[in-house]
From TrEMBL:
PROSITE patterns: HTH_GNTR. Residues 13-80 form the HTH gntR-type domain. Keywords: DNA-binding, Transcription, Transcription regulation. Pfam families: FCD, GntR. SMART domains: FCD, HTH_GNTR. InterPro entries: GntR_C, TF_FadR/GntR_C, Tscrpt_reg_HTH_GntR, WH-like_DNA-bd_sf, WH_DNA-bd_sf. This is GntR family transcriptional regulator. It comes from Amycolatopsis oliviviridis.
Length: 218
């Protein structure tokens, strides 16, 4: 696994949203693993902003489920509990089944091509963190192809937590991950293009199940 990349200075000062983007990227890049403390003073110095925007950014990330506040430690990167894992998996399953049915029923060739494009990017992923980003981008493309605005909004509400779910998965075991993930998604994309509803639902369920099995030790 490549060395984690830390935060980089913000281009514009005083923007809490940009600070949140930088800290989120650092979490997703592995610089701050689950359980890591996010200290306002250190972040403000690294990002070149005052503590106010950092505090606002951490609150935004807390609303996304990426950060939790503990009275004796301050802000920390969320560590998913067994309940968190089970709830995310069940909610993701419910949303994804609707998305897949809609894609099979009405996605355009251009929307399916956008899904294929993400699969091609997976072949060029340099490390596990980049592959996780591609995995999330793949699901972004699937939801976009569903043509269901509120469904896309529901996905975005849990997107960061699902990203953390997948990071936790590679933290438990990354053996064979880079080699297997592109082919898994290639099969998913192919089934979507074939518009084989039952087959694609089974493949998506198996795909989710593999990550869940790693996290639950099955």
């Amino acid at each position: 696994m490549s060395e984690p990349v830390g935060v980089v200075p913000a281009r514009r000062r005083g923007l809490a949203d940009e600070v949140a983007d930088r800290v989120r990227d650092a979490i997703f890049g592995g610089a701050y693993p689950p359980g890591a403390q996010l200290r306002e003073v250190e972040l403000s110095a690294a990002l070149g902003v005052s503590r106010g925007p950092v505090r606002e950014a951490l609150l935004k990330l807390e609303r996304e489920g990426l950060v939790r506040s503990e009275w004796h430690r301050g802000a920390i990167v969320t560590t998913l509990s067994d309940v968190d894992v089970a709830e995310l998996d069940s909610l993701r399953s419910a949303l994804e089944q609707l998305a897949v049915r809609l894609v099979v029923a009405k996605a355009s060739d251009a929307e399916l091509a956008a899904i294929d494009d993400v699969v091609e990017r997976m072949d060029r992923a340099r490390d596990e963190h980049e592959m996780v980003r591609c995995d999330i981008d793949f699901h972004d493309a699937v939801y976009a192809a569903s043509g269901h605005r509120r469904l896309v909004e529901a996905w975005r509400a849990i997107r960061s937590q699902v990203h953390l779910f997948l990071l936790t998965r590679i933290g438990v075991s990354s053996e064979g991950y880079l080699a297997s993930i592109p082919e898994e998604h290639r099969r998913l994309a192919s089934a979507l293009r074939e518009r084989d509803g039952e087959k694609v639902l089974e493949l998506f369920a198996a795909h989710r199940g593999q990550a869940l099995d790693v996290l639950t030790g099955k």
